[in-house]
Description:
This protein is of the alpha/beta class. It has nine helices and ten strands.
Amino acid sequence: MDKNLVISIKDLKKSFDGVPVLKGIRMDVYEKEVVCIIGASGSGKTTLLRCLNLLNEPNEGSILFKGAELMDKKTDINTLRMKIGMVFQQFNLFNNKNAIDNCTLAPIHLLKMDKQSANRLALERLEEVGMKDFAHAKVSSLSGGQRQRVAIARALCMNPDVMLFDEPTSALDPEMVGEVLSVMKDLARNGMTMVVVTHEMGFAKDVANRIIFMDEGVIVEEGTPSSMFSNPKEARTKEFLKRILTN
């Protein structure tokens, strides 16, 4: 196995109530790569992302994470999940806690870090995302963009090997999208391996190493941003990009 291979997916299938949502996905993600997954709503993008840490359990197929088979019953999924950071559309923060407490919960409880070390780490991560000044602010008092940056800092506190982003800007007001994308661009520049489900075509164009276009539960086409945006090969890709880029 290529030592730079972080995630390898083979023949992944997932159905909900007998309705197939993923129909045999094959995909690899390499170290320091930014892979953006695009496609219309309902194409299976979020389901695929959620299968990568078994938030959705696939019906068939194989997911290797750094050589470990996630689908193997003997695999300690909770240990592996610590190395897979996830940032959700709706932040998933504890609104009754402040920013720093949201960030220290997992390091203290899962990594058994002492409170002082966890606080120090959390402040570093909050600083990375431009939120150190809000460390002691209640999450409920923050804007959507600020909450999402705290959510990114929280994921980074576990020192993940890969970060999964599920449409991280779609719940934000338009003027807050830029601040979150800017943090994600910095992460990419610093070599974080990232899989990003996104509608932000400008971000995908600027930051992705590879773009995957999904439709009706299959990967229709993948390639570099320049090939996908200037010369897509498949009719379905052309149609989707024409629709989304002219809006």
